[in-house]
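Dear colleague,

Thank you for sharing your sequence with our group. We've completed the structure prediction you requested, and as agreed, I am returning the results in plain text so they can be pasted directly into your records. Please verify that the sequence below matches your submission; if there's any discrepancy, let me know and we will rerun it promptly.
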Amino acid sequence: MPVTHEDIQHWLLRSAQVLHENSAYLTQLDSAIGDADHGSNMDRGFTAVKAKIANLGDADIGTLLKTVGTTLVSTVGGASGPLYGTAFLRAGMASSGKQSLEATDVVALFDAALEGVRARGKAQAGEKTMLDALIPAIEAGKQVAEQSPIPQLLQTMAAAAEEGMKSTIEMVATKGRASYLGERSKGHQDPGATSCWLILQAFSDTMEAH
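Please find the predicted structure tokens below.
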């Protein structure tokens, strides 16, 4: 069963809810190695997204995701706005004109998002960023996309993102605000990798609820 326009809307609404519920937790993580604003920034951005997508009617999936991207760029402060905004913009471009997505389309959408984040943030794996959750998720997705139904694909991707997120605890940050701490950034989970996992988990839960 493909991912429909309605599924994408439900995913975005669930992401907004989950990010709101975890706002204090994300800020707590960020207070250890960042500016202590990741939770409030993501919550504000996705609250704005909720309002925006309510007015889009039957817009195609690409338009939905591009709207998320432009909304996040304009409402989220710090590094998160441009990075998540670019991710959703690129995902929207990859799914332009589509009313439904097959498993391979879902992986392609996240792959496009990854390339956007890489280009914008000049980051790579192992630098204690959101990419440490996103890259393993996509790699795991590519391995199973051809033979897995979409709920199972997203479960696999979310589980890989969670592992990647946990792996950031032992990393020394070399990108962003956390890099100023050097070795002292070790022992803390990256907030960006955590919000990335929460968004992927929200997608998995949305499709699991079918």
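Summary note from our side: Residues 103-121 form the longest helix (19 residues).

Kind regards,
the structure core
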